[in-house]
Design a protein that fits this description.
Layout lengths: L14 H7 L2 H10 L6 H7 L7 H10 L5 E5 L4 E5 L3 H12 L2 H11 L3 E6 L3 H12 L4 E4 L11 E2 L8 E2 L6 H5 L15 E2 L3 E6 L5 E4 L3 H6 L5 H13 L1 H8 L8 H11 L3 H8 L3 H11 L11 H14 L4 E2 L4 H13 L3 E3 L13 E6 L3 H8 L5 H8 L6 E9 L13 E6 L3 H12 L9 E4 L14 E9 L8 H11 L7 E7 L1 H7 L15 H4 L17 E3 L13 H12 L4
The protein binds flavin-adenine dinucleotide (FAD).
The site of flavin-adenine dinucleotide (FAD) has 39 residues, from α7 and β13.
Amino acid sequence: MRPRFCTPDVPKSSSCLKRVQDRDALRFFHRQVSSESVDCEVRKLLDLVPPCFYVPLLCLRLASSSPSVVIENRRYNTTTVREPLLPFFGLLILAVASNPCLLHTHYVFNRASLDAVVVGSGPNGLAAAIVLAQAGRSVRVYEAQSTIGGGMRSAALTEPGFIHDVCSTVHALALVSPFLKTLPLASHGVQFAHPQAPFAHPLDDGTAVIAERSVEATAKALGPDANAYKKLFQPFVSASDRLMDAILRPIGFHHPFLLAAFGISAIRSATSLAQSQFSSERTRALFAGAAAHSMLPLSSLATAGFAMGLMISAHSVGWPVVTGGSQNLADALAAHLRSLGGEIVTATRIESLAQLPPSRAILCDLTPRQLLKIAAQRLPTAYRNGLQAYRYGPGVFKIDFALRAPVPWRAPECARAGTVHIGGTLAEIADSERAANDGRIHDKPYVLLVQPSLFDSTRAPAGLHTLWAYCHVPNGCTADMSAPVERQIERFAPGFRDCVISRHVMFPADLERHNANIVGGDIGGGAATIGQWFTRPVVRLDPYSTPIPGLYLCSSSTPPGIGVHGMCGFYAARSALRHSLR
Ligand SMILES: Cc1cc2nc3c(=O)[nH]c(=O)nc-3n(C[C@H](O)[C@H](O)[C@H](O)COP(=O)(O)OP(=O)(O)OC[C@H]3O[C@@H](n4cnc5c(N)ncnc54)[C@H](O)[C@@H]3O)c2cc1C
């Protein structure tokens, strides 16, 4: 007789199960104790007994083979049923309880009706579900909100007829993503609208530095830094497919020479790289504006890498927006998932793993704080402590605007760019980002601004426009930054306020209410410090796995982190396919 737990539903990665799988002792134990008098549910428990309990359980089972005995006590007029199997059941429960991990594995995975469940429908959750469905596994996604998409949702936040992206708008990472670019997104209706220039950086003298699509054209306007700029970027732009494949993944040795060449500059702080490579304040400011996307002090290690990665993507694929709003990207991913047989259930917040239907694998598009909420009791202490020590970065204070006219930039070339970095010089931007990380409010914050309707006319009624702007603030900050943000825009676009029809403000807490993953307003799923970059969320050989067999993390709190690229989900699903879903 084959032991019951050898059914294909049991995760084969479980080393404990493997160890005991072929033991003759276990087969013998099963044959002896699984008599008809032991009902089906109890027999399932026998699969979970650690080997050290076989002998005592077997002895008890053999000793209790007599039927139940009814003892009458005439003096007190009572009857007692002496059940010989009771000591056996007592020890059986003790044995099973001594191994809660196996108990969970058995009950969740052995009775699986689905191969996998994904919690959360952000780009990573949907990417993970697609990878699993492509491999022929049954998968269901549970989403807390009534709409899907996580950081890719759009909504009419201000006036009717205005489409605003609640979170992401600029989708360079979707275009460079080794996984997303393989999907038939166009056939599900996704179109990218490309601004003429990826981003602009206005300065106080009324001019602006522009990151153009080509390295050559950008460098041409950088005067004394033209050669240094070309030397820094051109080799990586020419190899951008291989470079993105090497950096949008867990740490490893893919394309080692290219990675090493990139790493020499990327590991540096943005401040040190900009000051050593460029002599002009204009070029330094351009670099600082891109580096500040990291939400780290610009003196932190590897902030140069953040800027370089984004600028390489600007030159290789551009910084486009999705026509009609980012929600169309989410809907296309969902449509593709459904076409592969996947299911999506919305408006269902998962509060505990016990709420989920049985499945062989669970992939959580959640940050460590939510994982602790839904699985804490099951997580071993060391891993739990690791998750608790995970650091979140500064928050974001965001304003969406409905405008009656385009922004009146003093440097008109800013209107050629989809994204505008506002904050002046490198020193000013560094000061603002330092403040957000030190828990201080800055009255001249670095502002990241996106003006999608200039390139996508479907975003607003004819002649009208949408725009969002956000600044970094301390995590969970409750200060109203509307005035400082608008002052900064006015600084480079006098008369901006007169263009505003209405505005929609989101404090960090509002963003977190919209999406529980945005903890304290941190849009990156955790600080992108060098210590947490490749080892997020906890140091493990396989960062997507957890100590619970079959339970995985697949959000931007795993490598390669922030952005709409789906690569965290892709690699988490690959890990699940290698182990629990083989
Ligand atoms: C304001 C803002 C602007 C941004 N701009 C850009 C940009 O321009 N370009 C870019 O590439 N990136 C941008 N980002 C970052 C990008 O949105 C995120 O990095 C990305 O969405 C992370 O994807 P994810 O799948 O890991 O998680 P998320 O997109 O956060 O998705 C997580 C999902 O899980 C759901 N969820 C949470 N808890 C539960 C639960 N208990 N049960 C069920 N469901 C749950 C949430 O509702 C959400 O739908 C921006 C983010 C913000 C907030």
